[in-house]
Amino acid sequence: MRGSRSWAGFLVVVGLLNCRSGGSDAPSQGGNSGGGAEAGSAALGGASASAGGASAGGQGNPTGGKPVVGGAGGSAAGGTGGSGGAATGGVTTTGGKATGGRATGGTSATGGKATGGASATGGATGTGGFPPGVSPKKGVGAWFIKGIDTALVDLKVSWYYDWGPSPGAQAITVAIPFVPMIWDETHVTAGELAEVKKHGNVLLGFNEPDHGDQANMTVAQALDLWPQLQATGMRLGSPAPANNPAQSGSWLEQFMAGAKTRGYRVDFICVHWYGSSFDAATATSQLKSFLQAVHTKFGLPIWLTEYSLIVWSSPPTFPTWAQSAAFATQSVAMLETLPFVERFAWFSLPKYTQVATETGFLYEPNPVITQTGSAYRAAGVH
């Protein structure tokens, strides 16, 4: 979802239209409302906004533009006490309880699981730079916001990505494992291919190549470039399509057939899903059915690298905060039970659209955790 045809797009806020297909679909548009703290949410450190989107029945995937977010500011760490709350592990809270601490030390991702130890400053020692008891599957899509390091540690995720080859462009320095991506053909360069190898042994393939406002690549283009990604020696995730890859004749079906014919390696399947049913139980069931269909078709492990509840109509329609939070809780519980799902990442940590009613994002600026964020933070923690 996130991104633009130009890498420079990651450094500016762009408002674009999005739509999704793969069940039922409609064009959609992101607007932005600015954002103060949500009622009853906990403040943590600093943040920013963005725009774009997608959705469809039980399988929503994008066919519209994905804006990007960036901005000035630094991460807030340190133990300044917040009003109505206590600071714990370098996280400032307001009107709520802070948890976690800033992780430090080296990490690496191998075989779909985070490996290597790192100690968390201001928190307990964990594996791979995240707190003990956090699911190795649980991740998030993120980009620069003021206090991003604080928010990532507080969220209790075991990995994250930013649609780029390194966390540097997003000014992220936290030691939680980062997974790089080669976004489209313009990023298949010697410099970026060298950069991704500095960040673990897992590489995500092209972002929504079947989407005109995303990577927008033909199957032939992607196949011709794939040997260069393969030559990194990293564990490779497939291109993540916008549309349902389980459908007959899908972009990914054609890509995987071509890869097999040419003897190329694809180690796991990347997919995106946006649900249009706002009943948590129904949406969770639809997501499970979608993932099972994809696994049945391709027979490989799955990384669900974008998911949440949004109807990308014009303007986009969002669930209530309570519905979004309930889905976060129930979906994570379900994803933890599927052995073929190696990783999953909620979309997204900061606000993505400019629509005042958006409810799927996890942190407001400063950062302030939302109701959905609180639910996702608590989920997948054992």
Textual characterization of the structure:
The protein is of the alpha/beta class. The chain has a single domain, classed as TIM Barrel (Alpha-Beta Barrel), CATH 3.20.20. 21% of the residues lie in helices and 17% in strands. The strands form seven sheets. The protein has a five-stranded parallel sheet with strand order 12-11-17-16-15, covered by helices on one side. Strand 18 and strand 19 form a beta hairpin. Helix 5 packs parallel to helix 6 and helix 6 (321-335) runs parallel beside helix 7. The longest helix has 19 residues, at 280-298. It is globular. The two termini are 30 Å apart.
User: What is the mean predicted local confidence, pLDDT?
Assistant: 75
- Rg (CA only): 19 Å
CATH architecture: Alpha-Beta Barrel
* Alpha-beta classification: alpha/beta
Residues in β-strands, percent? 15-25%
The major β-sheet equals: 5 strands, parallel
Distance between the termini: 30 Å
Strand arrangement, largest sheet?
12-11-17-16-15
Number of helices: 7
The CATH topology corresponds to: TIM Barrel
Name the overall outline. Answer: globular
Order of helices and strands: EEEEEEEEEEEHEHEHEHEHEHEEEH
